[in-house]
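Recall the central idea of this unit: under ordinary conditions, the amino acid sequence of a chain determines the structure it adopts. In this exercise we apply that idea directly, starting from the sequence alone.
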Amino acid sequence: MSQIRVVVVDDQELVRTGFAMILERAGFAVVGLGADGAEGIALAGSLRPDVVLMDVRMPGTDGIEATRQITALDAPPRVLVLTTFDLDEHVYAAVDAGASGFLLKDVHPDDLAHAVRVVARGEAMLAPALIRRLLERFARPSGSPSVVAISEVSPREGEVARLVARGHSNAEIAAELHLSEATVKTYVSRLLTRLDLRDRVQIAVWAYESGLVRVGDAVPEGLE
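Accordingly, the structure predicted from this sequence is:
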């Protein structure tokens, strides 16, 4: 299996080189370092990494705008956003811009490496402390109309969506529903296509919006 190629973008040299060292020690190939969003966009376009590790607050082009432009590229890399600030608007803006993950900068090195692997394989990763607020912000009260009604997905697809919303990985969903991981991936792909959604985060939001899962049913520990 080839190395996952990563670009690190942060306006503080110490931070970006520190993250680069952590990732290289974890076995990733850090192919570029950017000091601002504009550099990040350029590096993403020229180097075609698998993942861009993106700071939020930077002079000039910030991380949110850079994420928006990077995710609009043909065959775009996944963007994993990191910030010092545990502020809700950053979470919403990052998700809206197309980020596949959102972590705080105090993340443990092992968790950072895990998050990069998760988003590189096409799934989503959010810091556990941020998930409930994200869902509470986007989720409408049960009974409100949703873009696609629950009746339009199969019972099994609904079960998979509910477990995605509760933070289960594909392996955990497979074990709980007595399915293979490949079958779970197929159900997740069907949900994305049928609901016209981008990723697992949006599946989780849809599950809450539609009333399939209610805020308070469970405290998700991650979307991975």
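The first helix runs from residue 13 to 25.
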